[in-house]
Design brief:
Length: about 350
């Protein structure tokens, strides 16, 4: 399933208090941990992220402490729970990298998943036990999950999806050129290269965006091949018409590009730079008059998301309704743009 569908599914589990243990499968870098963090933040509950591959059994089971004194139990020991296990409240206990943990560690985790307890520790009500891991085909160093453990999980598989990535990237103000490039070359969103440590994935493109904002090259994040293609795409950006003219309502003489990569670049560039309802309306009007409906639709999807985030939807809606030339388009795409 797509990341957006995964987020919706997990959010329903939390909202309806369905406390079934859930295993999320997917390739490295696709955003499994990030979407779980988003679900927890959206529900305003806690998140405890345990990377089981870095734990020893005693880290989760706790340490035995002898009972001292003249008590009848003298000579026995009690197990002191680790401080990171919750005592109350509501939240998600994420057992990340569960199938990278050795069998002994998975055995201890199995007690927590099956019985919601380890030794004399019991997980409080209101906590969800979820796990995440990579698949064998992802060339990850994973152990086989025992059948009894696997059978106690709901199993969800998430795959790379550009639309989900773009939604996240727009909300988090990724570098404009990175988003436009991946819109043009979505197959480079996730391209595992087991021969190299750096390769394209949603996670590494987020790092690439940070490198771009720092004025650095993106090769360390996504590898030489993807970075070379990105550099070629940047040449297209340099040849784009002045977007500020269009956003300022002065783009009458500006022609919509013929080259596909330039079309993606100008459409996404306008959507990201339209900071107000007025500038968005100028770009909307220009595209509606010079580009095909599919490009207006692409612009509208991204622009509406930006306007909602900036609290500009009321102004934009009024401007669109006052523009007779765009009523036909608005009617055709009313559900899409929410007007």
């Amino acid at each position: 399933m797509k990341i957006t569908k995964l987020r919706e599914f997990l959010s329903v589990l939390v909202a309806k208090e369905v406390s079934l243990s859930t295993m999320i499968w997917g390739p490295p870098g696709v955003g499994k941990s990030s979407v779980i963090a988003q679900v927890a933040a959206g529900a305003k509950i806690s998140l405890i992220d345990l990377r089981l591959s870095q734990f020893a059994p005693t880290d989760l089971r706790g340490l035995p402490v002898p009972i001292a004194g003249d008590q009848p139990e003298q000579g026995c020991s009690v197990w002191y729970r680790p401080e990171f296990l919750p005592r109350g409240g509501r939240g998600i206990l994420l057992l990340d990298e569960i199938n990278m943990a050795p069998p002994a560690m998975q055995g201890i985790a199995q007690q927590l998943i099956l019985d919601r307890r380890v030794g004399n520790y019991t997980l409080p009500d209101g906590w969800f036990v979820w796990a995440a891991g990579n698949r064998k085909e992802d060339r990850a160093s994973v152990f086989e999950m025992p059948a009894p453990l696997a059978n106690r999980f709901l199993h969800l598989e998430v795959l790379p999806d550009f639309e989900s990535f773009k939604e996240y990237a727009l909300d988090h103000l990724f570098d404009e050129q990175v988003i436009a490039f991946l819109a043009f070359r979505p197959t480079l969103l996730h391209k595992l290269d087991p021969q190299r440590p750096n390769w394209p994935s949603p996670r590494s493109w987020e790092m690439a965006s940070q490198l771009r904002k720092a004025g650095l090259g993106i090769e360390p994040a996504v590898g030489d091949g993807a970075a070379a293609e990105f550099k070629g795409f940047l040449k297209v950006y340099k040849e784009l018409p002045n977007l500020e003219l269009i956003l300022g309502g002065k783009g009458t003489d500006v022609k919509f590009p013929e080259e596909p990569s330039a079309r993606y670049a100008i459409t996404i560039g306008l959507a990201m730079r339209a900071g107000t309802g007025e500038t968005a309306m100028h770009a909307f009007r220009w595209l509606a008059g010079s580009a095909g409906a599919e490009w207006v639709q692409l612009f509208s999807t991204d622009m509406i998301r930006q306007m909602r985030a900036r609290g500009q939807m009321g102004i934009l809606a009024k401007l669109v309704k006052d523009e007779p030339a765009l009523q036909k388009f608005v009617k055709a795409y009313r559900d899409l743009i929410g007007l």
